[in-house]
Design brief:
The chain is an alpha/beta fold. The chain is built from 18 helices and 8 strands. Strands 3-2-1-4-7-6-8-5 form an 8-stranded mixed β-sheet, with helices on both faces. Strand 2, helix 3 and strand 3 form a beta-alpha-beta unit.
């Protein structure tokens, strides 16, 4: 009876991740698989509307050519496309030379270079003001667009006039992962690849079906121009400008913000723990800033949990998710409180196993929805053995996000936050300084005793 009581108490801590992560995600995965088999034959475009492609430029010399080449290789009617490069640097580096050579190699394409020097958000606003096309697509310069991307996005818009904005599926480029020499870093990059496939092919996919998407992907997002000009444009007072734009579009146009699961945009894998640490903290800070900017959408009665998607996501993603970290540290406390080790270990093994099963379901969803991305699909299948490691990887990510919440309280918003290495150095200095002061106090007390 004692074991049952203790298991029930421990089960309360397990209930939150079980209900709001494993249970919901499992149902989402099943729903996507069923809908994939029930979907009809895909339509084709009857005509090609005009579209502007906006590409912000910042330290892009090594990636810009591949990005532009992917645009030039689109299956879309390129006479209907204009490309605007938005330079966000104070000087012209090799990126400008790449632009000139591309212009010479593709004289049939309409492409412009604009100097902005004012940050990404202001650069995009400038590009939107220059564009006079029916649709506007923003893509990052450090990635490349699948050759069917433009057609897939426009087809999505044309299929439903209520759609105001669309985000593409952002994935990690497997070829760049293979180029990594460090086994430890390559394993982390592969886990990141799984994270992206889950986030877009499952998370955003299911949110899109209920018009409950929380944020457009900054790396690849598109708008009806008539919709985006109704907003206050990109907000340069927050590092979460893409999330802010998502809320603006929904509020001002009353339209849908959805995922285009047939548009794929590939980005670089993370270069190391420092880059991941700063990136994920920036994302976390951005979402919290947007939650503050749009308080009415994020607050209310508890029953809004079921009626307001933004309130629900904030609760599950930024409140209920953090008990995962609490019960991880709570294991030590409960052990010293006298809880049997086998109950603590057994409960965690069960929960970990459920996370792994969830990862296996996501894996099935990924290989199903990547049917027209042969090489990526093959790489995901070959990486199946990483599924048992994914809960550990997510634990690291949640730890970084928690650090982002703490740092957002004590520091101002900026794109260049401190890396993990620098924070460790500052922590050591602080500890060394505290220890030194403590030793000085001991020394002074000893001297006082001798002088008495």
């Amino acid at each position: 009876m004692r074991y049952i009581d203790e298991m029930v108490f421990w089960g309360v801590w397990v209930l939150i991740p079980l209900m709001w992560e494993i249970g919901v995600c499992f149902l989402s995965g099943v729903m996507i698989i069923i809908s994939k088999f029930l979907e009809g034959k895909k339509k084709k475009l009857d005509y090609y509307p005009t579209i502007s492609i906006l590409i912000p430029i910042y330290n892009s010399a090594t990636t810009l050519k591949a990005c532009l080449d992917s645009v030039a290789a689109q299956s879309y009617d390129m006479s209907k496309v204009e490309i605007r490069l938005l330079n966000n640097q104070q000087i012209h580096d090799e990126s400008y030379n790449i632009y000139q050579r591309f212009q010479e190699d593709h004289p049939h394409l309409k492409i412009w270079w604009h100097d902005t020097h004012a940050g990404k958000a202001k650069a995009l606003n400038l590009g939107i003001s220059y564009s006079q096309t029916e649709y506007v697509l923003n893509i990052d310069s450090d990635g490349w667009l699948d050759h069917r991307g433009l057609e897939a996005i426009v087809l999505k818009f044309e299929s439903d006039p209520e759609i105001s904005a669309v985000t593409g599926v952002v994935l990690i480029d497997p070829n760049l992962i293979n180029a990594t020499t460090s086994i430890f870093l390559k394993t982390g990059q592969r886990c990141e690849m799984f994270e992206y496939t889950e986030s877009f092919l499952v998370g955003r996919n299911i949110a899109s079906r209920f018009n409950a998407m929380y944020t457009l992907a900054g790396a690849c997002s598109a708008f009806r121009r008539q919709s985006i000009i109704k907003t206050r444009m990109y907000n340069f007072d927050t590092v979460g400008e893409d999330t802010d734009m998502t809320f603006q579009v929904k509020k001002k146009t009353k339209g849908k913000v959805i995922l285009c699961q047939d548009c794929f945009f590939y980005v670089d894998p993370i270069e190391g723990i420092d880059r991941m640490y700063t990136q994920r903290q920036r994302w976390q800070r951005g979402q919290l800033e947007v939650a503050h900017l749009h308080q009415k959408e994020h607050t209310g009665h508890i029953f809004n949990f079921f009626s307001k998607a933004s309130f629900r996501i904030l609760m599950t993603d930024h409140t209920l998710a953090f008990p995962r970290l609490i019960w991880m540290f709570g294991i030590i406390y409960l052990y010293f409180m006298g809880y049997p080790l086998k109950i603590l270990v057994g409960s965690n093994l069960i929960l970990y196993g459920l996370y792994v099963l969830n990862g296996m379901l996501y894996f099935l969803v990924a290989i199903l929805l990547l049917s027209n991305q042969k090489s990526t699909r093959r790489y995901v299948i070959q990486s199946w053995w990483l599924i048992p490691l994914l809960p550990l990887y997510r634990g690291v990510i949640f730890g970084i996000r928690l650090a982002g919440v703490i740092n957002s309280i004590s520091s101002t918003a900026t794109w260049t936050t401190l890396t993990l290495s620098k924070e460790i150095i500052l922590l050591r200095r602080g500890l060394d300084h505290s220890l030194f002061n403590h030793l000085l106090r001991i020394k002074s007390r000893i001297e006082e005793r001798f002088n008495e």
